[in-house]
Specification:
Helices cover 55% and strands 4% of the residues. By secondary structure, it is mostly helical. The strands form 3 sheets. The chain has a two-stranded antiparallel sheet with strand order 1-2. Strands 3-6 form a two-stranded antiparallel sheet. Strand 4 (246-251) and strand 5 (257-262) form a beta hairpin. The radius of gyration is 25 Å and the shape is globular. One of its GO terms (molecular function) is transmembrane transporter activity.
Length: 614
């Protein structure tokens, strides 16, 4: 991507449906402008398009807000079992830490990983094994920590109680993340992709959202009126008003100050809906329309219910590795988190293909998938070292947001990653975002989880759904992925083997719907007789092979500065499973990395720069 991109100018509103106009960079990309008209079925901004900087910031905020519920929910869910339910200040520290680490991991994934616009954040796949570990008798919170009148949050005794638990989580996450790093960078996940087809990925991704209907409904049920308004606004903006262009003031070009049409509702449906619903809750809080009694229906819809977090959080705080002390390791915790790692990896592979389809990119080749999983493992290692109490994974919620907004630019996700870093550094700002009323987040989740489920099911387009074999595999996997975890949660004592660590591993595996459904889909799809065409593997593998051979795939999934394709193309690197393949047909080896660094702005190398021939 070394070609220079020319400057752009805004169009007059009467000159057509295009919102912004810009010159092509010679490779089909657009910069600082609307890539396509709203009537096109393609994304408004594809992965290689570069929107104007202010749109990148605004759309990055939208992705941050989309992930906000999950980012905040993970520390708050763990707070009770970490003995922190009466310590909101430490909870805000955990929230800031997970913001900061998620920003680092997002930037690593965009620049060095799979290179798709996928936001990285705390994973719910680690919540179940974490809660299972903390429920052991050795880690149950003392009774006095459950009584707010007996808790002195500044006492050394209380500090040691919660810190030793989070250090245990840190050690388990860091060791388990090494498994993910090995699986990714060794190419093992790429090898497994030969056997993981649509009938494995479809139930796995669908079961990411389906089991969460209860929690999403509970959040929305705090005040169904507010939640319904949020849902109505998201649907209104993203579906009914998406083709309506709004005149926007613009400065630049020959006319300097003028107006230009912009499809505001199509690009920012979630952000607009959240802001309007939040504003309504604020008005209802100021006028005391919402009840002030903590036990009354609708109390949590008030904007002042989380005021303690905002008032106690510091303005600036820099998270650092080992901030809670030296991590500790136990066998039970490691095996439990490994179960979460397996489910997270299968989910992420499905997210890669879903994201590529939504942003107009070719399916990711194997070396990109290997690199993506390896970088996610590195992200989990960093999250464990920083002490977030959780790992990181690709956020399916934000993949769903791509389907609604149709904005798939990589630079938007770079802006979102930088925003997460800032939120992690400025504690007050991060705490302020955490005060979004619960029913607003619940309404947003109901829409997003529906989109994620549809994205998972859409993988079935590659298989023959007239086949009774395929209908059985998908239906049985989905149903067992809902039924088995529900039964195990209600009857944990029925699965006792006498070995505590083994009992925990079994319970964690069988209570993770993604793992149950994905495992059954994988097992049945690879054992029940069926042709490659019937299973969808013929088209599936053909898509992957075609992706690796196209110039578009090399441009999307290659490393920055042409590393591996134009420079650093040593014969030794071609044996690395995560290294991109060089461009074929030249018969020459590309320049070295040193030569890339000494290029002139025009793209020509300086005189005297060495060029190594094959």
């Amino acid at each position: 991507m070394s070609s220079a991109i020319t400057s752009c100018e805004h169009l007059d509103p009467v000159r057509g449906d295009d919102v912004l106009n810009c010159h092509d960079d010679g490779q089909g990309r657009k910069k600082a402008g609307q890539a396509r008209s709203s009537s096109s079925g393609q994304p408004i901004y594809s992965i290689l398009d570069v929107p104007p900087w202010y749109l990148c910031i605004l759309m990055g905020i939208q992705h941050f807000l989309t992930a906000l519920g999950g980012l905040v929910a993970v520390p708050l869910i763990l707070a009770k079992d970490l003995c922190l339910q009466h310590d909101p200040l430490t909870q805000s520290y955990l929230i800031s830490t997970i913001f900061f680490v998620s920003g680092i991991c997002t930037l690593l994934q965009v620049f060095l990983g799979v290179r798709l616009p996928i936001l990285q954040g705390g994973t719910f796949a680690f919540v179940a094994p974490s809660l299972a570990m903390l429920s052991l008798p050795a880690w149950k919170c003392p009774e006095w920590t459950l009584n707010a009148s007996l808790v002195n949050t500044s006492s050394p005794e209380f500090t040691e109680e919660w810190q030793k638990r989070i250090r245990e989580l840190q050690g388990a996450i860091m060791v388990a993340s090494c498994v993910q790093i090995v699986v990714g960078f060794s190419g093992l996940i790429g090898f497994l992709m030969r056997f993981i087809g649509p009938l494995t990925i479809a139930p796995t991704i669908s079961l990411v959202a389906l089991p969460l209907f209860d929690s999403a409904g509970n959040n929305a049920g705090i005040h169904w009126g507010i939640a319904a308004m949020t849902i109505f606004l998201i649907v209104l903006f993203s579906q009914y008003l998406k083709n309506i262009a709004v005149p926007m003031p613009v400065y630049g070009g020959e006319k300097k100050c003028h107006t230009s049409k912009f499809y505001l509702f199509q690009v920012f449906p979630v952000l607009l809906a959240l802001c309007l619903s939040w504003l309504l809750c604020f008005v209802l809080t100021v006028t005391n329309t919402l009840p002030s009694a903590p036990t009354a229906y609708g109390h949590l819809a008030r904007t002042d219910t989380k005021g303690n977090v905002l008032s106690q959080a510091p303005w600036f705080r820099f998270p650092y590795p080992g901030q809670w002390g030296l991590p500790t390791i136990s066998l039970a915790g490691v095996f439990g988190i490994i179960a979460g790692v397996i489910a997270s990896m299968v989910e992420s592979v499905g997210d890669y293909y879903a994201c590529a389809r939504l942003v107009g990119a070719p399916p990711p080749p194997r070396h990109a998938v290997n690199r993506g999983i390896g970088i996610e493992g590195l992200g989990c290692l960093l999250a464990g070292a920083w002490g977030s109490g959780n790992g990181t994974t690709s956020y399916s919620e934000n993949v769903g947001a791509l389907g609604i907004t149709r904005v798939g630019s990589r630079m938007v996700m770079v802006a979102a990653g930088c925003l997460l870093l800032l939120m992690g550094l400025f504690g007050k700002i991060g705490a302020a975002f955490a005060t979004i009323p619960t029913p607003v987040i619940g309404g947003m989740f109901l829409v997003m989880f529906g989109v994620i489920t549809a994205v998972g099911i859409s993988n079935l387009q590659y298989v023959d759904m007239n086949s009774s074999r395929n209908l059985f595999i998908f239906g049985f996997s989905i149903y067992c992925g809902l039924a088995i975890p529900s039964w195990v949660n209600k009857n944990p004592e029925k699965l006792q083997t006498g070995i505590l660590q083994l009992d925990q591993v079994i319970q964690v595996l069988l209570t993770t719907g993604m793992f149950v459904g994905g495992f059954l889909g994988f097992l049945l799809d690879n054992t029940i007789p069926g042709s490659l065409e019937e299973r969808g593997l013929l088209v599936w593998n053909q898509i992957q092979e075609e992706s690796e051979e196209t110039t578009m795939a090399l441009e999307v999934y290659g490393l920055p500065c042409g590393i591996g394709t134009k420079c650093c193309t040593s014969s030794c690197t071609q044996y690395l499973p995560f290294w991109p393949k060089p461009e074929a047909g030249t018969g020459e080896q590309g320049p070295s990395l040193l030569a890339c660094l000494f290029q002139e702005p025009s793209g020509e190398r300086r005189k005297g720069a060495a060029e190594t021939k094959l």
